[in-house]
Amino acid sequence: MMTPTRTPRRFTVPDRATSLINGVYATPAADAFGLPVVYPATEEVVSTLCEADAAEVDAAVRAARRAFDSGPWPRLGVDARKDILYRIRDTLRSHTEELAFLECLNAGLPMVRVREQIGRAARNFEFFAEVASTLKGETYTGLEGYLTFVTREPKGVGALIAPWNAPIALASMRVATCIAFGNTCVLKPSEYTPLSVLRMVELFHEAGLPPGVVNVVNGRGSVTGVALVSHPGIDMVGFTGGTRTGAAIMAAAGRNLKPCILELGGKSANIIHPSADLDRALDGALAGIYSNNGQQCLAGSRILVHRSVADGFIARFVERARRIRIGDPMDPATELGPLAFAGHLERVLGYVDVARQEGATLLTGGRRAPGFDRGFYLEPTAVLARDNASRVCQEEIFGPFATFLVYDSLDEAIAMANDSPFGLVAYVWVGDVDVVMRASRELRAGTVWVNTTMVRELRAPFGGYKQSGVGRDGATSSVEFFTELKTTTIPVGPVPLPRLGAGS
Ligand code: NAD
User: Fold this and answer.
1) Closest atom of ligand 1 to CA, residue 464
2) Structural domain that includes position 128
3) Does the predicted TM-score (pTM) go above 0.70?
């Protein structure tokens, strides 16, 4: 199939992506480093990112600092803040088509998927507005003669860093959890995907968010990201991205004693138990690895199948994988679009060689999708690994690349699932309630999904064990991270005071 070299522009695409500081686009320095912004389906350069250097990051942090230290946002009554957050929700919803177009143009994600993600972004603002409006304090009267009360206050300026695999959904999560409690922030989207996030932040301002509350800096992690997380003017770091980057960020933030919340990578097990409804398990296994173009932290990328059902299950999986509709992500019928950028396609393809060298069996795919003369398309790929110690079982590949393993007993399946440096989520397809309870108890993962694909319950904590993260998002957990506790103590009657220097 020929892919078009120029994509029809249904909405305005800015020629350049610069920083957005205090609600105004920055004028980049004449010698600002420029990076092409590429549509992964056609390889067309659709815009240029102007990288923010340390001075521009400093201006953004100062703007966020001013908005926090003396601006209206942290001082607004909770209802007034909620009104603005609700207007943000409504504005995002009414711009779904535009945001979805930009998201698709930037990340190459299928249109059907990105529309859902814009809905999710809008919901994030609504949800955390509600959480913030129900914050409670504590009082203590146990100390004789004194009243002590405990209040929650916004923590300050957040440095928020987002990845490219679901730019709007993940950036909105970081921003909503931060600003709903009265904090301000500087957001750095991935250098691969600045466009949709910038437009989203413009829309925040159209919805009435005061300038300086959300500022955006664009650029590579090694320049803009480093300057942001090591800036002394920030109070906390919220990061979603790769595990190695998370470790570097935590080390940089640690030098200034800034707390971090980190949502990192995964290599999640998807256990197919013989008692499962295998038709549903098949749908779940395919969606678990091939949705979002295979680029999702939550992917069920290690599929563990019981030997008694393995042959039939794997054969049906392969047959369906071969029928997945690959194509133009703007086409609502497309199920699998291109990978996000050229280097990532090369990286994922590299794992096909790794699998071969490790003696894995290539079940399907393993090459650039035929028929596409442009774009970073990869066929849905699946391999049968020799054992769980192999690299294709231990490393996050982050593409449409499923790795199968066969097990004989539940003990073995649980041991294999847990034998991983990661612990983000786990899936179990099962019809036996005892197995459900054992899996829930013994799997070392932040979330266990039983007989379902990924479902995000915003009220519940979400985050990873082991190298999949530090901290949790969610109602209670986000309050704990993004607010400070303050204890105030006051006498309720005359209490003796020491009277130094008052003696005769
Ligand atoms: P990445 O770690 O390469 O980059 C993420 C962000 O960090 C980008 O904005 C990048 O510019 C920035 N960055 C890189 N180095 C930095 C540094 N030293 N200092 C400051 N910022 C820096 O990740 P990615 O490739 O964009 O995203 C894919 C990864 O994200 C995968 O590992 C995936 O599993 C993970 N992820 C996790 C979750 C989750 O909720 N757990 C969600 C989505 C993605």
Assistant:
1) 41
2) 16-264+468-487
3) yes
